[in-house]
Amino acid sequence: MLNQIKGLHHVTSMARDANENNAFFTHTLGLRRVKKTVNFDEPSVYHLYYGDEAGTPGSVMTYFPFPNITRGKPGTGEVGSTVFSVPKGSLDFWQQRLAAQGVGNIERDESFGENRLRLRGPDGDGFALVEVSDDKRPAWLAGGVAEDDAIRGFHSASLRLRDGGATEELLKFMGYQDVDTSNGIKRLAIPGGNGADFIDIETLPDVGRADLGAGSVHHIAFAVDNREKQLEVRKALLDTGYQVTPVIDRDYFWAIYFRTPGGVLFEVATNEPGFNTDEDTAHLGQALQLPRQHAHLRSRLETLLPKIED
Questions:
Q1: Which helix (H) or strand (E) holds 209?
Q2: What pLDDT shows up at residue 310?
Q3: Using only C-alpha atoms, what is the Rg of the chain?
Q4: Could you give the CA distance from residue 60 to residue 241 in angstroms, rounded to a whole number?
Q5: Engineered SS bond to 15: which of 7, 58, 65, 177, CB 3.0-4.6 Å?
Q6: Where is 23: in which H helix or E strand?
Q7: What share of the chain is helix, strand, coil (3-state, %, to 5)?
């Protein structure tokens, strides 16, 4: 069993409209845009990152907004919901705020003994806010949400699978442990994690496979401290029979990717070097930052990419 994984690093999804996506995360949820860059493989499309002040691993939601993308079809083989941690007693505030801003499908419920508010993002994305009483992670407080209510980072993510057995075995190999089962959903946790510690497995044997599109999670990333730990994880996965990519430099972290038995794309990303490598922490997310291989396209991209209204 591995011991290098420290919880979630980031979750990357698809969107249709960059401005709508930016407004939802910065103005509605009160997160900080910590990076405005482009897709490594398709530089005509933004890659937007949202999180806490510094983009701490375990707080970062990222998006590829493809202007003409169709809506994703929910199903199995995908991340179902991305769940954020909020302070105890803050759900009344969030329910009123979200309703006032026209957010859809707001529902209150309880999961694993925790009070939860479920909601949908602009593209039908599945989110939830869960009250946590002892989350000590600092919140971003310049987003219009008070400290007593502000998002602290990820709490968990749920996986919708036709058969959860092999993915559960993989997560346990990665260091996760059984915590509880509630309404047929199995929860696993990483001991001593970064706060974004839980993965929930929902087994839906009669549901068809999801189709990727706007509102779908593209991949979910797990955090390791550094490149040395990442290489240890990569070797262990290869030795177990997984097809793992070489290490890829993503400018703000190094990444490896592999497909899970249930169909979800997993990434293992380093906590280093972070988002302040090309702009200081005070100005994160303000200027368009380009990967080195696309730097020569700056003048063209600045004309082509839609202006994001802050």
A1: none
A2: 85
A3: 18
A4: 30
A5: 65
A6: helix 18-23
A7: 20, 40, 45
Tell me how far apart the alpha carbons of residues 84 and 179 are, in angstroms, rounded to a whole number. 19
* Domains of the chain with CATH codes: 8-304 (3.10.180.10)
Q: Where are the beta strands (DSSP E) in 104-224?
A: 104-111, 114-120, 126-132, 153-161, 177-182, 185-189, 198-203, 217-224
Residue 62 has phi, psi (to 5 degrees) of -125, 155
Please identify which residue in the block is written with the tokens 């990442």: 230
174-217 per-position pLDDT tens digit = 999 999 999 999 999 999 999 999 999 999 999 999 999 999 99
Q: Which two tokens stand for residue 305?
A: 């990419």
Helix or strand run (H / E) with residue 170: helix 165-173
Q: One-letter amino acid identity for 6?
A: K
Torsions phi, psi for 55 (to 5 deg): 70, 45
DSSP E strands in 162-203: the ranges are: 177-182, 185-189, 198-203
Pick from 286, 245, 232: which is nearest to 49 by CA?
286
Six token digits for residue 304: 């082509």
Amino acid identity of residue 265, one-letter, is: L
Q: Which token pair is 119?
A: 């909601």
Do residues 247 and 254 make contact, with C-beta atoms less than 8 angstroms apart? yes
Count how many residues are written for the chain.
310
